[in-house]
Specification:
Order of helices and strands: EEHEHEEEEEHHEHEEEEHEEEE
Largest sheet: 9 strands, mixed
Bound molecules: fe (ii) ion
Radius of gyration: 19 Å
Number of helices: 6
Strand content: 25-35%
Shape: globular
Number of strands: 17
Structural class: alpha+beta
Distance between the termini: 32 Å
CATH class: Alpha Beta
């Protein structure tokens, strides 16, 4: 196994010659450290099948099956499929997923610690992922904005981005919305997480899921506070040129792991409809989402 730093606009570290079958306990401990401290680890030239990919993810935490079955791979509930490929037999996965700023499962009781992303078929151009490091975004907030969110909580819901399922056709929209609220009720998290491994403070709001901020007593704070945080962190920049934004592009064989507490992401899809398919395994680690102790 060889680990190298990435340079220029490329963030994180790059790993060559990694074979999960022969990795040592020390190798895995080193890689875990890199995930939490460097945020992105790109494993090159990987050739795993579905079962191998789940086993790979299991080395970094406990895989979780996505709650909506339509995203799951037919051979493993733990593999989430983003795909626009038309298959004669039946559809596998969901097309054009995640094209909005978010952290995976931020709207759930147990958000994932690490996301493992493994493109299977790439278009000729334009498939990548935009990222923002929300620990850096927190450090860069103006002092008054940082003070305004001290001891506050934020509310998160999937309601604006839940995808209509084939089985929802002909159902009244109100009934579908009521089901979304019942299955995925809003979650309340501190607006600033303390990362349980690195101790960094992380601004924990995203454009897709966060819809309100509350003061320490649970009182509603003005909507403009959330808008200011989204703008300052770069999430409202439609040009994607904000200093906080960086893009990860993919080469065949890349398997990318990232720290889902610290990084928010947004899929960059090919503007046309070229065939593209990606697998994802998401895992929980042994730590809580946020440490109670300030760094
Ligand atoms: Fe995602």
């Amino acid at each position: 196994m060889k680990i190298g730093n990435r340079t220029g606009v490329r963030r994180g570290v790059e790993v060559h010659d990694f074979d999960p079958a022969t990795a040592t306990v020390d190798d895995l401990a080193t890689l875990r450290r890199h995930i939490y401290h460097d945020k992105i680890v790109v494993f090159k030239e990987q050739t795993l099948d579905v079962r191998g990919f789940v086993a790979f993810g299991s080395e970094f935490g406990k895989p979780v099956a996505y709650y909506e079955p339509m995203y799951r791979h037919p051979d493993s509930d733990f593999v989430f499929v983003s795909s626009n490929i038309d298959r004669a037999s039946s559809r596998v996965g969901v097309p054009k997923t995640g094209a909005f700023w978010h952290s995976d499962y931020q709207f759930m009781p147990e958000p994932f610690a690490v996301t493992c992303f493994y493109p299977q078929q790439l278009p000729t151009v334009g498939r990548g992922t935009y990222f923002i490091d929300m620990a850096k975004a927190y450090q860069r907030l103006a002092p008054d904005l940082r003070a305004a969110i001290e001891n506050t909580h934020s509310l998160h819901s999937s309601r604006r981005y839940v995808k209509i399922r084939p089985s929802d056709v002909f159902r009244p929209l109100g009934e579908v919305i009521a089901e979304v609220e019942r299955k995925t009720p809003p979650q309340r998290w501190p607006t600033v997480l303390v990362h349980p491994v690195t101790g960094e403070r992380v601004l924990y709001v995203c454009e897709a899921f966060t819809y309100a901020i509350q003061d320490a007593a649970g009182g509603a704070l003005p909507d403009s506070l959330l808008t200011d945080l989204l703008a300052a962190s770069g999430q409202l920049d439609q040009s994607f040129e904000h200093d906080n934004i960086f893009v990860q592009s993919y080469e065949p064989g890349d398997l990318v792991l990232w720290d889902n507490r610290t990084l928010i992401h947004r899929a960059l899809h090919n503007p046309g409809n070229e065939a593209t398919e990606s697998f994802r395994v998401t895992v929980l680690d042994e730590h809580p989402l946020t440490s109670k102790e300030a760094a």
